[in-house]
Amino acid sequence: MALQITESCVNCWACVDVCPNEAIYEDKPHFLIDDSKCTECLGDHAVAQCAAICPIEMAIVDELGAFLNPPGSLTGIPMEKLKQFGLWKEAA
Amino acid sequence: MELPVISNNAPAAEGGGCSSSGCGTAPDALGHLPDHIRAKVQDHPCYSEEAHHYFARMHVAVAPACNIQCNYCNRKYDCSNESRPGVVSELLTPKQAINKVLAVAAAIPQMTVLGIAGPGDPLANPARTFETFEQLSARAPDIKLCVSTNGLTLPQYVDEIAKHNIDHVTITINCVDPEVGAKIYPWIFWENKRIFGIEGARILIEQQQKGLQMLTDRGILVKVNSVLIPGVNDEHLKEVSKIVKAKGAFLHNVMPLIAEPEHGTYYGIMEQPEPTPEMLQDLQDACAGDMAMMRHCRQCRADAVGLLGEDRGDEFTMDKIDVMDVDYEAAMVRRKEVHDSIIEQLEAKRGSSAPKVEEVGIPADSRPVLMAVAGKNGVVAEHFGHAREFLIYEASPAGVRFIGHRKTELYCGGMDACGDGDIVDEGATESLLERNIRILEGCEVVLCSKIGYEPWGKLEAAGIAPNGEHAMEPIEDAVLAVYKEIAATGKLSPAVDNKKVA
C-alpha cells in the first residue's frame, strides 16, 4: 500500500517536508516515493500529506493509478483549456 | 535655478525638497521615517530607491516548496530565461547557497543584502531557510538578511526570524477580504489539509495580518508587496494599503500582474488582463497619500544577483563558484570600505541645498509631461536600441518625479523557447522596435544617448519626441531641461488643444 509520483511532478519539494514517514526522496527526473516506507499516512493524518500539499494535478497516484488530484481539481482551469494547453492526461 | 526633485508621492501629497541622484527620487519617499529606521534602509536596494543605484543584493534559491497556490504562479520554477518572481536557474542546498553568497560578496563589494525569496515560500522550507541564515550571519555578519513570505506560517516563525537578526521581512498581501482572496488563491495547505476557496483565503489573510503585527511589534521592518490584478483587487488595494500602514508596515510595493499564457499559470491561461502602466501609476498615486510607495521594483527572479535591473546571475552559477578562489576576510574589509564610501557620497549629496520651486519660472498651470529615459546609474546613458528598460519620469510645475520603469524585453520566449536561451529573435528588429514604441505609450519624449534614423522616424510618427541631446547628463537635470524647452514653446499651456509635444 503506497502512493506513487508521476512524470507530472515539477520537483518542488513540498511533499518531502510534510511526509510523516520520510518516504519521499530526490531522484531524476523527479522525486519518488519509497513504497516500503509509504503508509498513505494511515494512522498519522486523515489525508495523504503529499497529495494534500502537491500543487500539480495528476502528479500523485494510488496503487491503481488513480489520480489523487485529478485534472482541474486544483487550479480550476476548465477542461477544454487544459486540453488546449497540453495539460490534460487520461488516468494511467 | 533648477526645480527641486520631489519625492515619489503623488503631487497632491506632501513632497520633500531633497535633491537626489540616480533616478531622481526618493530619499524622501522614506522621509517620514525615524532616523534609526532610515539608517537601516539607506543601503538596502529593495527598501530605498536611492540605494538601489549603488548597492547590490542577491537572492539564493534554497526554498522551492510552497504551502499555498496563487493564480499567478504555476510552480514550474525551473526556467533560465524569464525575469520574474518565482523562477530560478538552479536550486541550491544551504551549503551551496553559503558558498555562492560568499563568492558574490567578494566579487561585488557593493553587495549589502542577502534575501531568500523562493522560488516557493521561504517559511514553507524552514530548515533550509534558517540553516542558510544561521551560517551566513556567522560567516558574513556585515550582510543584511531578508526574507519574503506569503505569510501563512509567519506567526509561528516570528521568534526564529528575530533570533537570526533578520531585519527586513516582505509579506505579499494581495487582499484583506476573503471573497477577493478566493479569486487569487484557490487553496492553501493548513493544519495537514488542503483548504479551498474563501475559507482558505480567510485563514491566509488572518495569518498575514497577525504576522505583520507581530513583526512590527518587535521593531522588524516590514515591506508589503501586492500584485495588482485588474478587476480582482485593483480598487481593494487602496484599503490594503491603509490597513498595512496602520499595522506598522513602512513601505508598500504594488507590482503589476504578469500573466502570459505561455507561463501556464491560471491567470495566463484564463487570459486575465495585466494592468497597463497607467493603471499601475494611478493606483500607486492613490495609495501614496496613505503610505510610502515603492516604485523601483524590478520583479526580480528568486536567484537574482547584483544591482536591481542588472542581473549578473550567469557569472555565478555553481560550476563557476566551485572553482573560485575567495579570500573571505579580505573581501569583508573591502566591502566595508566600499559601503562607507558610498554612504559618505550619499550624505554629501543630501547636504546640498535644494532650489526653490518658485524660482524656476514654469507657469503653475502647465500640464505635466511623461518622459521615458534610457538611463543607467542616474544618467542618460543608453542607446535607444540597447535599452533593456526605460525609466519613466513625470515633469510638472511641482518638480520631477520618478514614476516607474517599463521593460523592453519579453518576459518569456514561451513554452517552446523555454530552455533554449532564445528570448528575442536577433533578426526581429522590426517587432522589437514596435514593441518598444508600444510600451512608451503615454510618454511624449524619450531621452537616450543615441538613436538610429529608423526608430527616430517611427517614434515621431507615434507622437513621441526622441531626444539625444542630453547624453551623460544626470537624468533629473535632463528631464527638467527638456520640460523647460517645451514650456518655452507654449505647448504646456492648458489652453493649447494639441497637447502632444512631437
Brief synopsis:
The complex is a heterodimer of chains A (92) and B (502). In chain A, 17% of the residues lie in helices and 9% in strands.
Number of extended strands of chain B: 17
Find the CATH superfamily of the largest domain in chain B: Aldolase class I
What top-tier CATH class of the largest domain in chain B fits best?
Alpha Beta
> How do the SSEs of chain A run, as a string of H and E?
EHEEHEH
Q: What best-fitting shape of chain B do the alpha-carbon axes yield?
A: globular
Q: How widely separated are the two ends of chain A?
A: 17 Å
The description of the largest β-sheet of chain B is: 7 strands, mixed
Strand content of chain B: 15-25%
Q: How many domains, in number, for the residues of chain B?
A: 2
Mind telling me the C-alpha Rg of chain B?
22 Å
Q: What's the arrangement of strands in the largest beta sheet of chain A?
A: 1-4
Residue share in β-strands of chain A: 5-15%
- Radius of gyration of chain A, in angstroms, nearest whole number: 13 Å
Main sheet: strands, sense, barrel of chain A? 2 strands, antiparallel
Poorly predicted residue ranges of chain B: 1-28, 353-358, 410-430
> Mean pLDDT score of chain A, rounded?
91
Q: How much helicity do the residues of chain B have?
A: 25-40%
How many helical stretches of chain B?
15
The average pLDDT score of chain B comes to: 82
> How far is the first residue's CA from the last residue's CA of chain B?
26 Å
Poorly predicted regions of chain A? none
Describe what you observe in this structure:
The complex is a heterodimer of chains A (92) and B (502). Chain A has helices at 14-18, 49-53, 79-84, and strands at residues 4-5, 24-25, 32-33, 60-61. Chain A has 92 residues and is an alpha+beta fold. Chain A is globular. In chain B, helix 2 (94-107) runs parallel beside helix 3. Chain B is of the alpha/beta class and 502 residues long. In chain B, 51% of the residues are buried. Chain B is globular. Chain B starts with 34 loop residues before the first helix and ends in a 14-residue tail after the last helix. In chain B, the strands form 4 sheets. Chain B has a 7-stranded mixed β-sheet. Chain B has a 5-stranded mixed β-sheet with strand order 15-14-11-16-17. Chain B has 2 domains: 35-321, Alpha-Beta Barrel (TIM Barrel); 357-496, Dinitrogenase iron-molybdenum cofactor biosynthesis domain (Nucleotidyltransferase, domain 5, 2-Layer Sandwich), CATH 3.30.420.130. Mean pLDDT of chain B is 82; it is low at 1-28, 353-358 and 410-430. Chains A and B meet through helix 1 and helix 2 of A and loops of B.
